[in-house]
Design goal:
Layout: H1 2-41, H2 45-71, H3 80-104, H4 110-117, H5 120-130, H6 138-155, H7 163-188, H8 197-219, H9 221-225, H10 236-266, H11 269-290, H12 297-323, H13 349-359
Length: about 375
């Protein structure tokens, strides 16, 4: 009877993990293809991103309100001093990362975007070394060389290469390295009480919106004000279709963060990292099949080399955690973190937040 119960528990955990991975894939791959699809007809990626931020903020606020009503515990609200001094740098880096990533879809294919964006792990490692969140080791140097070499091979003589789009997404990956390093440092400040990613998203979105607004005003403001798809619309149906499409993107963006958190809280950050590797492969295969992206043998070899570097990084994190007797806990985090998010999370999230946000560079 005991053996049967263990088998049932194992099968249930496997089914739950598979379901969470598939949910994460739906949102992650879905928003990539959605952004590419929408930017073909709606050439205002910065405005699109700002509306997504507004939707994420609304859903984050709703989630916080629901959790507060169910738990009867007040949610954390930062003072203006802490908000502007400690959250603003992370918000600005996040806004530029997301905004430039979406902007690049005007010029490059999904496959080139996916490959270049995966190099964010490289920049995360570099900035982790600069901020002394990681120690310099020979294995980390090998990881950097594999990812950088793979990126070079993938873009070398690519038939669909576009320098402007590549520069945008590479800049986004560079800023993404700063973004996730700052995010990790932000979450390690236990006195702020932002260990719950929903609280983090709630506090980040307004500053992200404001940080992206000047860029939007310079590059898209005038064109958008004269566009017949928004402010000078002549067909109400077209306006409703555009707004509905933009709102759908906001739902996908929030769902991505929600699914990532559920996957980590119910499994581990290692599961998210491994799932992220296979997600990149699925995205490239879908891009080649559905969008006709042209990928040569050399490009595939470069992608394989890059994935080898990412896989080595994941393996090193797993070995490091096992060698320490478990994942490294957040500095200063108490023993009773607030991690409910409509669903109750497991206690292991306290120990895995740090690795979780390091893993986000693959997204």
């Amino acid at each position: 009877m005991g053996r049967w119960a263990l088998d049932v528990a194992f099968v249930w955990k496997a089914v739950l993990t598979l379901g969470l991975v598939l949910l994460y894939y739906c949102f992650s791959i879905g928003i990539t293809f959605y952004n590419k699809w929408l930017t073909k007809s709606f050439h205002f990626p910065l405005f699109m991103t700002m509306l997504h931020l507004a939707v994420i903020f609304l859903f984050s606020a709703l989630s916080r309100a629901l959790v507060q009503c169910s738990s009867h515990r007040a949610r954390v609200v930062l003072s203006w001093t802490d908000y502007l001094r400690r959250v603003a740098p992370t918000a600005l880096a996040t806004a530029l990362d997301v905004g430039l990533s979406n902007w690049s879809f005007l010029y490059i294919t999904v496959s080139l975007y996916t490959m270049t964006k995966s190099s964010a792990v490289l920049f995360i490692l570099i900035f982790s070394l600069i901020f002394k969140l990681e120690e310099l080791r020979a294995a980390l140097v090998l990881v950097v060389l594999l990812i950088a070499g793979g990126l070079f091979m993938f873009t070398y003589k690519s038939t669909q290469f576009n320098i402007e789009g590549f520069a945008l997404v590479l800049a986004a990956s560079f800023i993404g390295g700063i973004r996730w390093t700052l995010t990790q440092m932000l979450l390690q400040k236990s006195e702020l009480g932002l260990q719950n990613p929903i609280d983090t998203m709630f506090h980040l979105q307004p500053l992200m919106f404001l940080g992206l607004f000047p860029l939007f005003a310079v590059f898209e403001g005038l064109h958008l004000s004269t566009s017949e798809k928004i402010f000078r619309f002549q067909d109400t149906g077209v306006l409703l279709w555009v707004l509905g499409s933009l709102f759908l993107g906001g739902i996908l963006a929030f769902g991505l963060g929600f699914s990532e958190f559920l996957l980590v809280s119910r499994t581990s950050s290692l599961t998210l990292s491994i799932a992220g590797i296979f997600k990149e492969v699925c995205t490239l295969l879908l891009a080649a099949h559905l969008l006709g992206d042209q990928i040569s043998l050399l490009n595939w070899l470069g992608f394989a080399l890059c994935l080898s570097g990412i896989s080595l990084h994941v393996a090193l994190k797993a070995l490091h955690s096992r060698g320490d007797g478990g994942p490294k806990p957040l500095k200063g985090v108490g023993s009773n973190p607030d991690l409910e998010l409509l669903l109750r999370s497991s206690q292991q999230e306290e120990d895995e937040n740090e690795d979780y946000f390091m893993a986000q560079g693959q997204q």
